[in-house]
Specification:
49% strand; 13 strands; 4-stranded antiparallel sheet; 173 residues; elongated
Length: 173
């Protein structure tokens, strides 16, 4: 199963690179829309200090596709009482829109996660997939919310992937 996910991640990463390299404009139906993808990810791991952890991380990623087709992103992550938020503007996020899909790769110190979002023709609903994997024979290495570096010791699991679309800018207050 993990080997299949790694192969899928490699294929999807190549597709993402192809999409990123192509000059695609966001379809008119996608403009001025906010997309929210949420999921839980668990990567059993050993910390740089020798500690172990296998707590699920709740992740919510929000994307706003502006009226000019530029993608803004916000990532909210939570593990227990620890949480953080990271925001990126156009040019800082690698999310790319092609046709009725939006794809991006989040790179870890070792390994990566790909988020692929598929929209209905009117961009009023979506489905998403999040895949995490690493190079064959190498563990995933990531930085925890506590600032420690963690090295994977067991299979990574992504669950509860949900996707929604709303009109307007989710970041406007």
């Amino acid at each position: 199963m993990a080997e299949r996910n790694i192969r899928e991640l490699a294929v999807l990463a190549m597709a993402g690179a192809f999409i990123a390299g192509a000059a695609h404009a966001a379809p008119q139906q996608a403009l001025n829309k906010s997309v929210t993808v949420s999921f839980s990810i668990t990567v059993p791991a050993r910390g740089s200090d020798g500690s172990t952890q296998a707590n699920p991380r709740a992740v919510t990623r929000t994307y706003y596709i502006s009226s000019q087709g530029r993608v803004f992103a916000r990532a909210d992550r939570r593990v227990g009482k620890m949480q953080d938020r990271l925001e990126k503007g156009p040019g800082e996020t690698n999310m790319r829109i092609a046709g009725n899909s939006m794809v991006g790769v989040i790179v870890f110190p070792s390994g990566a996660m790909q988020i692929a979002i598929n929209f209905d023709p009117s961009f009023s609903s979506c489905s998403a997939r999040a895949i995490v994997g690493a190079e064959s024979g190498k563990p995933i290495v990531y930085k925890g919310l506590d600032g420690k570096t963690y090295t994977q010791t067991g299979p990574a699991q992504v669950s509860g992937v949900a996707c929604s679309v709303s009109a307007g800018n989710a970041f406007a207050s």
